[in-house]
């Protein structure tokens, strides 16, 4: 019986739990939750679990997102002034 590596297993996955989806996008789970509540990512529910389809992660990753995720804990450096020397 062959074992799949983590990379191969995740490539075959159709639905991701929130933590794994956030990891795939390189954002926090809290930021992912804001994207879901803002309807920027579609979800699927199985029982009480909220899952994000792989196709949604790919669609979101291919898009351009110049604005920071609302409510994220990441600092917004886009509005800071350059230091004067």
Distinctive features:
Arc Repressor Mutant, subunit A, 85 residues, 3 strands, alpha+beta
Short structural description:
This protein has four helices and three strands, in the order αβααββα. With 85 residues, the chain is of the alpha+beta class.
Which strand order spans the largest sheet, edge to edge or round the barrel?
Answer: 1-3-2
Beta-sheet strand percentage? 5-15%
Mean pLDDT: 81
Radius of gyration, taken over Cα atoms and rounded to an integer in Å: 16 Å
Task: Characterize the structure shown.
This protein is an alpha+beta fold and 85 residues long. It has a domain at 10-61: Arc Repressor Mutant, subunit A, CATH 1.10.10. It has helices spanning 6-11, 18-25, 29-37, 54-62, and strands at 15-17, 44-46, 49-53. A 3-stranded antiparallel beta sheet has the order 1-3-2. A hairpin with a 2-residue loop joins strand 2 and strand 3 (49-53). The longest helix is centred in the middle third of the chain and has 9 residues, at 29-37. The protein is globular, with a radius of gyration of 16 Å. The mean pLDDT is 81.
């Amino acid at each position: 019986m062959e074992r799949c590596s983590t990379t191969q297993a995740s490539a075959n996955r159709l639905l991701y739990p929130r933590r794994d989806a956030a990891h795939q996008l390189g954002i926090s789970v809290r930021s992912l939750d804001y994207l879901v509540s803002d309807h920027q990512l579609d979800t699927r529910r199985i029982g009480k679990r909220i899952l994000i389809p792989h196709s949604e992660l790919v669609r979101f990753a291919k898009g351009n997102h110049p604005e920071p995720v609302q409510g994220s804990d990441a600092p917004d450096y886009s509005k800071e002034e350059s230091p004067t020397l």
